[in-house]
Amino acid sequence: MQKNKLGHHLLSLARYYSRVAPPPPAYADPVIRVSNNVAYLGSPKQGPKPRQLLSLPPFPGHHLPGKNSATGRVTAISWLKYYFDEISDSAIQSHFNKGLVKIESSNPNAADSFIERDGQMKSLRKIKHNEVMEVGARVWVPVSIAETRVSRRFDCIPSGTLHPNADEIDYLRRLVKYKDYAILVLNKPPKLPVKGSLPVHNSMDALAAAALSYDYDEGPKLVHRLDRESSGLLLMGRTKESISHLHWLFNDINPAKSSCKAWNDACDAKFQRYWALVIGTPKENEGLIRSPLSKILLDDGKTERVILAQNVGLEPSQEAVTEYRVLGPMINGCSWVELRPLTSRKHQLRVHCAEALGTPIVGDYKYGWFVHRQWKQMPRVDIEPRTGKPYKLRRPEGLDVQKGSVLSKVPLVHLHCRELVLPNIAKFLPLLSNNAETLSPGLSGKPDLLRFVASMPKHMKISWNLMSSYLV
């Protein structure tokens, strides 16, 4: 009994002192940070900032114009689509799917967040897209659903809005290599996504629609894609007719040929040529890679990855064919390779280089992570195979090698669409639209083919200057 009384007494003391303990200080103790192998003493890192919300006016209760008023009900998504008529329906639906749209609730127990309005705290709860709006109900949405800014996520885009000013439009138009009434050809910089989505605002399709429409009512549309990390020639169509024929042209399974022989010959001559810097060197100086590809999901259930198909008949696969040619000897453990895809598959060149040839592209950590871990990025003496004499990796004076080049600690992807040859759509479009067999005299003098060559981005130029002594 005495032990029990003593235990209860000690427990009461502990509880007593825990209640009267002084509150923690308003400031936090400094912490040690490490950046670029240097330790700093500073304040703790701030947590995530609260999401900025935008309040819609109270729901008026009357029927929305253009909507069916037979039921007499208006859903939440109809109210948002009516209020944000300039926002795409898919973007609004995505906000509902992610639970970002909320409504003021009179029941604090059902609320999942609170916000201050008119000096009072209002409780908010998530609302589904099919919930019926009531008179006076107030909906809150993130500011991102209404803003039209271009994110500054990538340094290559000096644009802060989807309504660029004169300087920003001039920058975007400097990317244009060729323009006529049917097509637009650009030299895409690296790290710029081609196709946008809800979290990606500064994609090439959005920028082109905002700044590259020129005298047209609508901007150009994509007809093929490049990876976000890669760079080079990107083709876009400017009219519905040219976009349709370009989609047909870049389709791997083309339908029947046209009755015009010149158009058919020009289509057969179409090709893309890439330059890539790979780790190692292929066993053969040139060849044809014919390895079908399959898509799989990783363990997280979200990340998609492209691999070589096993040809066991248990998984869907797509035919993928690539021609390659080695441009020169291996210098500092790397080789320049020319790639010509004969099919258009997602990540085809990256997978073929990494898995079929065993030489992943420099900077491609997704498909060449293991090889990058073993890669020694140190200048060393190599033997020139034609003369047998040693040579060293030359360093041009005044060259900054820490900008994503081959000598950078974390190099960027060295894959560039350098050359593009395609039919002259502007010449053949009147013929194709009228189903004619011969060209008009005014168009017969124009060339059947258009050829474009794009300069490499800065990081690949640095690597090229470092390693171009013995290229063939």
TrEMBL record:
It comes from Gossypium darwinii. The lineage of its organism: Eukaryota, Viridiplantae, Streptophyta, Embryophyta, Tracheophyta. Coiled coil: none annotated. GO terms for molecular function: pseudouridine synthase activity; RNA binding. GO terms for biological process: enzyme-directed rRNA pseudouridine synthesis. This is Pseudouridine synthase RsuA/RluA-like domain-containing protein. Residues 183-354 form the Pseudouridine synthase RsuA/RluA-like domain.
